[in-house]
Amino acid sequence: MSATETATRPLNATTYDAGARPRVRIVHLGLGAFHRAHQAWYTERAGDGWGIAAFTGRSPEAARQLTGQDGLYTLVERAAEGDRHEVIGAEVEAHDGADLQTLATLLAHPDIAIVTLTVTEAGYRLAPGTEGEQARLDTGDELVATDISALRAHYEGSNFTLGTGGLDGRIVRTTAGRLLVGLAARRAAGGWPIAIVSCDNLPGNGAAARTSVLDLAELVDPLLASWIDANVSFVDSSIDRITPRTTDADRASVLEATGYDDVSPVVTEPFSSWVLAGDFPAGRPAWEAAGAVFVDDLEPYERRKLWLLNGSHSLMAYAGSLRGHTTVSEALADEKVSAWIEAFWDAAANHLQDPQLDIPTYRAALRERFANPRIAHHLTQIGMDGSLKLAARAVPVYRAEHGAGRDGIAALRPLAAWMDRIVAQLAAGQEIHDPAAGPLAEAAKATGTDQTAALLAIVDASLAADPDTVSALHALRGTFTD
Ligand code: CS2
Predict the structure, then answer these.
(1) Atom nearest to 389 CA in ligand 1
(2) Are 397 and 203 in contact (CB under 8 A)?
(3) Given Cys at both, which of 11, 235, 326, 408 links 262, Cβ 3.0 to 4.6 Å?
């Protein structure tokens, strides 16, 4: 696309020739900026005619905006040197996540081969697990409990052959609940196999998706659970592309550069990566043509990304905020934060020994990505849902270090900074954005080491029972603002 030579115009199928629209073969849950910068971009780049029908999470606004543009949007690749603009046409339909009828109709069609998910760590509604064991669906969660009764009441005695009529998507709100409605429709229509691909930052995200869906199915209808077990492939994937929230300034820059008044552009970094492991029983796009990598064992790649990128992101989010920074590039430029990141990376690298992982190159690339001064990646965005994120990003590094007989201090630092930040936010009367906000506020009422232990118990109960870990962690509290 070149700079405008005509007057400003809206972006849609009449103003922009996106060519023939691809056939919808993928359903996506969690229509947000990251999905549009990542899976939609890979699907577009694969160039083999696969299209996506995406559903929003909580608010239908993103679907409304995208539908107003016939699914078209501008993807801005923002490098340190400048912007590259591209209009993406792979997003063929956008729907309100509460529209269960459309979800069920799509999944009941044999064309649909894949469901991709970006529903955040919290979206799987898993109760904190014990080390080494798969966390189970949190049946004590209010939304899960509501879904169980709504789904039971609806399908009771129908052997899951009932349509969705009368089932209210504003009541069935969990990802697992909505997926179950779609999968029940697919089973009733013909029972074709399908792949569900998790694209969230959780270790073993395919297994997490599987447990979330199967645990719910077992509670609602064990027969549906057996069908899912036999016909649904849960694919693990490690996803990577730094994509901050779109701002008004981004919209203005797209308008200026392209002449299109795009209400919903996405700004992302040039780098992207997608590593996947698992089966696609109904086929898939040639995502490898866009650089995706298919492997047998995802774990080493997943660890490299979750520990090195996300772990240091969380460290910056809390320690950087305590030191008065607002973005990743600002936090990285702080010598102290930078040294803590290096120490954390050294600790993680001790357990990422496979030479194929090429950790020195990966670390150098991360520094460059984080330093991109044109990407304003806000620490508050990364800091959300810390109780879940730290369990995936910092705790495993600490456990590995501790297990190898070292103190693991560098890996405790993100946890200590998070605790200081939570306590400071609560003292300032600020809202804590975390599924465990209530328990966190309660735990913060304790003082001294008891407070540290109580907060740690929310992330990892068994670690909190180890007095040495608690006292090492406690010694780090209050060391971030010097
Ligand atoms: C970030 C991630 O918000 C966060 O928790 O650490 O969204 C991160 O930007 C992506 O995983 C990068 O691929």
Answers:
(1) 5
(2) no
(3) 11
